[in-house]
Design goal:
Elements (H helix, E strand, L loop, with lengths): L4 E6 L3 E7 L9 E13 L2 E11 L6 E5 L4 E7 L13 H5 L45 H6 L13 H4 L17 H15 L2 H9 L2 H9 L23 H9 L9 H24 L8 H8 L1 H5 L6 H12 L8 H17 L1 H16 L6 H16 L5 H14 L9 H48 L4
Antiparallel strand pairs: 1-2, 2-6, 3-4, 5-6
Helix pairs in contact: 8-9, 8-11, 8-12, 8-13, 12-15, 13-14
Length: about 475
């Protein structure tokens, strides 16, 4: 559990609590008010306060959450109006359990916890509300400058320094705050090389054709849209009521980005959309419980906080990861995803936004993956609506060009050598089997001939003819 940073203030009738809980799910807050005890829980944050006065929960309390700043604000009425709470700045004493200066028990009765009788059932362990809390200390400016940046436009830092234990399943980088982009890329390539399974690849190559054709023949929602003839025109995309409500909840923020950063953002967007369309195809358009894992695993941007510098790098990275991680690993699915992505970019930014909204929903409903919305997807959803149309054209043209050129020749895992080795080994095995069959034929032929000759000799000997 992480103790969040918080501030307390008061007026004559109300106590105001401001709790900083960045990168948490906005729909899951648990609050308990019992006299002078205040408890707040929003995974992975937990705050318990022993207040110097009593507060009540009678319907007059109000709460709000600033998504952009990660601030939860709550105004709670005092039990006695006009009562002044002393010591609201003594944060350490407020964090201690009621009636104690320390959160640790001074005496523990271990005898009562001795061995139980055989067959005795244990009661379910309750949550320890008296867990020890430590004051949050914000890192200094000097410490922040030493940490690496990541997220949308490389605008985030120090996100995982306190949340790494809770969010270790979200990304593959061991220490993102201290891993340079070069180190992250090196580790990503090493991980892909080590996890690549030739047997799985060959199994998908020569088996499962029927199911693969089902995925390739599937018509996703974007296939019904025709790219506009005018490169400056935008096609009309219909958004559902849920998607509209989702857009209304996004923070109204602007992004001041230099040209180099904008380019990496476009390339990261290409990487994320590629992962999304692959999941859509392999689930027949119905996202499942594995969709969040599939999307973030196939995207180097999301799983390794990767920063790409060319379309070539994006496509090669996506191809490598498709051949390493998902259930279905075949070049035809890679090429289908690339054609789908090129088509989506040709249809315009509204079509791209619809893809991002779908990814946002998948991550929002997944326990560990929601953090990626705060790091990337929410900013992408806001930024793409204001982005200029011109950067879309070079990406889609380069994407089509790479597809025509054959991205598979660029993959470093060299699956073609594996295929050739498999074919050669198969041919060698067939030849060996042919030679073995010939050997067996002659062996049994001579065996039976010898047996026949021995039998004839024995019969002749018994008749006295030898």
């Amino acid at each position: 559990m992480i103790t969040p940073a918080f501030e307390l203030s008061q007026d004559s009738d109300y106590l105001t609590l401001v709790i900083r809980v960045p990168y948490t799910r906005t729909s899951e807050f648990d609050i308990c008010i019992d006299g002078s005890d205040f408890k707040f829980y929003a995974k992975p944050y937990f705050l318990r306060l022993n207040l110097p006065g009593r507060i009540v929960q009678d319907g007059r309390e109000k709460a709000s959450f600033d998504i952009d700043k990660g601030l939860f604000t709550m105004r709670v009425p005092k039990e006695k109006a006009g009562h002044h709470f002393e010591g609201l700045q003594m944060l350490t004493s407020l964090l201690a359990p009621k009636g104690s200066r320390s959160a640790k028990a001074l005496v523990e009765d271990v005898g009562a916890c001795g061995g139980s009788e055989a067959g005795q059932e244990y009661e379910e362990e309750e949550f320890d509300w008296q867990v020890e809390q430590e004051m949050y200390v914000a890192p200094s400016v000097e410490d922040l400058q030493k940490l690496q940046k990541y997220g949308f436009g490389n605008l985030r830092t120090a996100v995982f320094s306190r949340l790494q234990e809770e969010l270790s399943d979200v990304i593959d980088v061991g220490d993102p705050d201290n891993s340079t982009p070069t180190a992250r890329r090196r580790d990503r390539l090493d991980a892909e090389t080590s996890v690549f399974c030739a047997d799985h690849y060959l199994c998908d190559l020569y088996e499962g054709e029927e199911m693969r054709q089902v995925y390739l023949n599937f018509k996703p929602w974007w296939s019904e849209m025709a790219p506009p003839s005018d490169s400056h025109a935008e096609i009309t995309v219909t958004f559902t009521d849920e998607e509209k409500e989702q857009m209304r909840k996004f923070p109204n923020r602007s992004h001041l980005l230099d040209p180099a950063t904008r380019r990496t953002i476009w390339l990261g967007l290409l990487d994320i959309v590629l992962a999304y369309v692959y999941d859509v195809r392999t689930t027949d358009g119905e996202h499942n419980v594995e969709s969040a894992w599939t999307i973030r695993k196939l995207s180097g941007t999301l799983s390794w906080l990767e920063t790409y510098h060319s379309v070539h790098e994006v496509l090669v990275s996506f191809g490598r990861r498709v051949l390493c991680y998902p259930l279905h690993r075949h070049f035809s699915l890679i090429m289908a995803a690339m054609r789908d992505t090129a088509h989506i970019f040709q249809c315009g930014k509204a079509c791209v936004l619809k893809c991002l909204l779908a990814v946002h929903k998948v991550f929002r409903e997944n326990e560990p993956a929601y953090i990626l919305n705060d790091l990337y997807i929410t900013d992408y959803c806001v930024w793409i609506q204001r982005a200029k149309k011109t950067p879309l054209r070079p990406i889609k043209n380069r994407c089509v060009k790479k597809i025509a050129g054959g991205v598979q020749r660029e993959l470093e895992c060299d699956p073609f050598s594996i295929e050739q080795s498999f074919v050669l080994s198969t041919q060698h095995m067939e030849q060996s089997q042919c030679h073995l069959a010939t050997f067996r034929f002659f062996f049994f032929f001579f065996f039976f001939w010898s047996c026949l000759m021995l039998r004839i000799d024995f019969q002749l000997a018994s008749l006295g003819l030898m």
